[in-house]
Amino acid sequence: MSPAYENDQVICRGLSFGYGGAPVLAQFTATFSPGLTLVQGFSGCGKSTLLKLIAGYLRPAAGTIELPGRLSPTDGNYQRTALGFVFQQLNLLPLATVRRNLELVGALAGLPARTVAARTRKYLGLLGLEAYAERRPGTLSGGQQQRAAIARALIKEPTVFLLDEPTSGLDDLNCRVIMKLLGEHLPAGCVCLVATHDQRLAALPHESLDFNRFLPVERHLVALA
Q: What is the 3-state secondary structure (H, E, C) of the chain?
């Protein structure tokens, strides 16, 4: 595989990580190409941990992560300019309007004001949030807040876009809006990983990684089974 091709991918080599001595990932290796990949598995299997390692919010005990443009998760500019992350907790700024949440992220990424304004209109429109642009997150429904968090993450049109359970607990209508966005409107060349156990997302055109197979085996249960 040529270096030029690898340069467009997220490549994990031999990743290991644990919490308090309990292993979550052990020698995990995978390559994620531009487009959508569903990282599927039960709660607690390590999906969120993988996303946080790729985002640079956690550091592996062993192994390496190579990002598009040969960036590193520890590169200070990566999170600011190239990464979009949608947390389970959403983390919208509570005192800012939906529009201002998007504008602040765009400004911090160093985007020109005209670009920020155009992309704000674009993603609020794609996610059906135009009528809520001047409202604060606390006045919105759960589905509206989730869509606002996705719009905010996309304002940078990131090269790495990570979503942690983006449709968990949402009704079918909100889920379909989010699925349409992910299926049709990802930024060009974007590597998008969606950690989920929501079977509705299986209808998306995607690559898929079954994360359950990376769970550490409790050896003492093998004989009992």
A: CCHHHHCCCEEEEEEEEEECCEEEEEEEEEEECCEEEEEECCCCCCHHHHHHHHHCCCCCCEEEEECHHHCCCCCHHHHHHHEEEECCCCCCCCCCCHHHHHHHHHHHCCCCHHHHHHHHHHHHHHCCCHHHCCCCHHHCCHHHHHHHHHHHHHCCCCCEEEEECCCCCCCHHHHHHHHHHHHHCCCCCCEEEEEECCHHHHHCCCEEEEHHHHCCCCHHHHHHC
Total residue length of the chain = 225
The single residue listed with the structure tokens 């999170």 is 79
Give the pLDDT mean for 173-187. Answer: 96
Task: Enter the CATH code of domain 3-210.
Answer: 3.40.50.300
Per-residue model confidence (pLDDT) at position 59? 95
Sole residue written with tokens 């956690």: 58
Q: What is the pTM of this model?
A: 0.90
pLDDT at residue 222 is higher than 80: no
Backbone angles phi, psi at 14, to 5 degrees: 60, 35
Please report, as a single letter, which amino acid is at residue 208. Answer: S
How far is residue 43's CA from residue 118's CA, in Å, rounded to a whole number? Answer: 37
Amino acid at 97: T
d(CA 39, CA 35): 13
- The confidence score (pLDDT) of residue 225 equals 55
Question: What percent of the chain lies above the pLDDT cut of 70?
Answer: 92
Question: Tokens representing 39?
Answer: 């990282």
